[in-house]
């Protein structure tokens, strides 16, 4: 076994690897960018080495710098985590050439699966079923359009070097193909440096089921399946294991196909073979097809760990250090059911825009596993993925585990940034999801109800007024001889409070009065126990009561400023201006593309709010802008 390893990653996965390494008596070395100098993974590791600027290209993608850090600190091996360099075969070659061990598959195995078109051809040779489609080298747009016609709409355009939903577009009719192709190729070029795409038949009732495999370079086992069908724009949201509705026959067929895929490339370490499944007539062993293989540990690996009792990171370290597979196939079994929900800093009602901010408060439910790379006081940076944590629950049945997930989400407390917590909680309580009726289109069909801003309970609003007035602990100052003292509240112009005494306050909002009393078990509103807690910072107050309810606190010294109008397009988040499509004097129509911003690994298109003429282009391509920065101004309407 290694005595010291370096972790070439950051955030949640770096902390996850450190936890297992520490339990195994293995020392760890963290690497960090300028933006991560005070990050949680740096604090947890035994040693830490600075490797460059905040942009990934200046730090976490600098393979030579990371290898040098490993050599200088005496690390014997490098764990890549996921993302960044984890599936870069050139990095693997460099690690091995430096006399170090790469904790993962060989460079040849990564290359074999790195391009989707070549991987599918290899899998077809190995007897693994593949989705009908075009995987050729001819990337001429007219040729690709003809192939799409031959396959039959709807089709899916996918970057051959892709992952994480980038470079992927669903096209439902021929007239939309050209624009979708250009968009997919542009995103693929930016994300992977390779604009090539393949075309696949789109399955109309698709489920995304993947199989966890583990190999030692000669043989492989599978650790059963995960269902990742609950997705938004090809990004996984909630994962579970095992897959609902799975039959023993299909599990056997999928497991055998996955291990054949791993053994065909001499796979060593943890990997995932992803399948697209036609769920229109239940799960059938003749209706699943290979999509791709992820040659690394997956974000959703904890649900597999929960149902098998296996620590996959421990297995990675043991096999990479020279041990054979720790278990045979017949020794692996499934116990219970598990779910994982991905908690992100994002503004769901605004279209899932990534958010930034300082986490003034972070607390997880007591009865769940929470894998996180941040702490209260940490900053959610625009440089990296905005994941806050993964919330994992495990129970004896699917219904129990899902109930645990819903409760854990409702009890999780985050303040300092907006999150998708309410969205996740709604999903966990969704009747169709509870029945196991899952497919990749569920969120899209239900998006209006799932993504709507959660209703604010009147009691939460009243308690927010109390908190903003500085009376959360119930103290009251001043006195009156004849009645309760009325105080206006700058926090809410429609609100006023009447202080009856310490711990007894009436809150009037829009003419409706609620009686609030601070009892031994916390604030009670109109006699009802609330169980509420509060977190307040300079700009907001958050009331935690059956979810989180955030209220902005106006700055009395800040002059009113005009909000975004149809004349002005503002940056919705900090990020990079990747493309500008208009020039001064140009006529535009409502819905026309004005610019593309890139933030937190995603592209966001800015559209014209109305017909008009461009008066000013206020940014240039390549500019890094803050949230709220003016990008494009249209001439005023007459």
UniProtKB/TrEMBL annotation:
Residues 560-635 form the Lipoyl-binding domain. Keywords: ATP-binding, Biotin, Ligase, Nucleotide-binding. The keyword Hydrolase does not apply. InterPro entries: ATP-grasp, BC-like_N, Biotin_BS, Biotin_carboxylase_complex, Biotin_carboxylation_dom, Biotin_COase_C, Biotin_lipoyl, CPAse_ATP-bd. This is Biotin carboxylase N-terminal domain-containing protein. Its cofactor is biotin. Pfam families: Biotin_carb_C (PF02785), Biotin_carb_N (PF00289), Biotin_lipoyl (PF00364), CPSase_L_D2 (PF02786).
């Amino acid at each position: 076994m290694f005595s010291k390893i370096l972790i070439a990653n950051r955030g949640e996965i770096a902390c996850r690897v450190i936890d297992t390494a520490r339990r195994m008596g293995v020392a760890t070395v963290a690497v960090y960018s300028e933006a991560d100098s005070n990050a949680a993974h740096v604090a947890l590791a035994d040693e830490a080495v600075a490797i460059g600027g905040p942009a990934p290209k200046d730090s976490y993608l600098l393979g030579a710098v990371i290898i040098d850090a490993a050599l200088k600190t005496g690390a014997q091996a490098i764990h890549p985590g996921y993302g960044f360099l984890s599936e870069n075969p050139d990095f693997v070659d460099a690690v091995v050439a430096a006399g170090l061990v790469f904790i993962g598959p060989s460079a040849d195995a990564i290359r074999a699966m790195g391009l989707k078109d070549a991987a599918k051809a290899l899998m077809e040779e190995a007897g693994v079923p593949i989705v009908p489609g075009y995987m050729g080298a001819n990337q001429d747009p007219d040729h690709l359009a003809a192939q799409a016609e031959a396959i039959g709409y709807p089709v899916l355009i996918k970057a051959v070097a892709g992952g994480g939903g980038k470079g992927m577009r669903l096209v439902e009719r021929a007239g939309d193909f050209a624009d979708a192709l250009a968009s997919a190729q542009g995103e693929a070029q930016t994300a992977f440096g390779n604009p090539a795409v393949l075309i696949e038949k789109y399955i109309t009732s698709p489920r995304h089921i993947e199989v966890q495999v583990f190999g030692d370079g000669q043989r492989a086992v599978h650790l059963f399946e995960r269902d990742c069908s609950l997705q938004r724009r090809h990004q996984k949201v909630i994962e579970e294991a095992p897959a609902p509705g799975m039959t023993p026959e299909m599990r056997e067929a999928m497991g055998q196909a996955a291990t054949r895929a791993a053994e065909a490339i001499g796979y060593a370490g943890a990997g995932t073979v992803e399948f697209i499944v036609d769920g229109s007539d239940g799960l059938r062993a003749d209706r699943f097809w290979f999509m791709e293989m992820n040659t690394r540990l997956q974000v959703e690996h904890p649900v597999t760990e929960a149902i098998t009792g296996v620590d996959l990171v421990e297995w990675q370290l043991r096999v990479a250090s020279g041990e054979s597979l720790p278990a045979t196939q017949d020794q692996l079994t499934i116990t219970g059911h598990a779910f994982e929900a991905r908690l992100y800093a994002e503004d769901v009602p605004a279209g899932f825009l990534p958010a930034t901010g300082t986490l003034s408060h972070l607390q997880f439910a007591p009865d769940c596993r929470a894998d996180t790379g941040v702490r209260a006081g940490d900053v959610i940076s625009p440089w990296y993925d905005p994941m806050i944590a993964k919330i994992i629950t495990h129970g004896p049945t699917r219904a129990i585990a899902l109930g645990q997930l819903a409760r854990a989400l409702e009890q999780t407390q985050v303040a300092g940034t907006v999150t998708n917590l309410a969205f996740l909680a709604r999903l966990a309580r969704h009747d169709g999801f509870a029945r196991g009726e899952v497919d990749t289109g569920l969120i899209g069909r239900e998006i209006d109800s799932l993504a709507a801003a959660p209703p604010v309970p009147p009691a939460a609003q009243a308690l927010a007024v109390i908190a903003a007035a500085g009376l959360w602990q119930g103290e009251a100052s001043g006195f009156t001889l004849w009645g309760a003292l009325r105080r206006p509240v700058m926090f809410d112009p429609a609100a006023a409070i009447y202080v009856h005494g310490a711990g007894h306050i009436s809150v009037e909002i829009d003419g409706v009065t609620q009686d609030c009393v601070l009892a031994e078990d916390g604030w009670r509103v109109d006699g009802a126990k609330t169980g509420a807690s509060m977190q307040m910072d300079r700009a907001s107050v958050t009331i935690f009561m059956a979810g989180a309810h955030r209220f902005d606190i106006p700055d009395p010294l800040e002059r009113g400023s005009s909000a975004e109008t149809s004349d002005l397009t503002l940056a919705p988040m900090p990020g990079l201006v990747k493309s500008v499509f208009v020039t001064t004097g140009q006529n535009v129509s409502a819905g026309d593309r004005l610019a593309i911003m890139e933030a937190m690994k995603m592209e966001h298109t800015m559209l014209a709010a109305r017909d008009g003429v461009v008066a000013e282009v206020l940014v240039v391509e390549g500019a890094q802008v803050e949230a709220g920065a003016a990008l494009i101004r249209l001439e005023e309407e007459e």
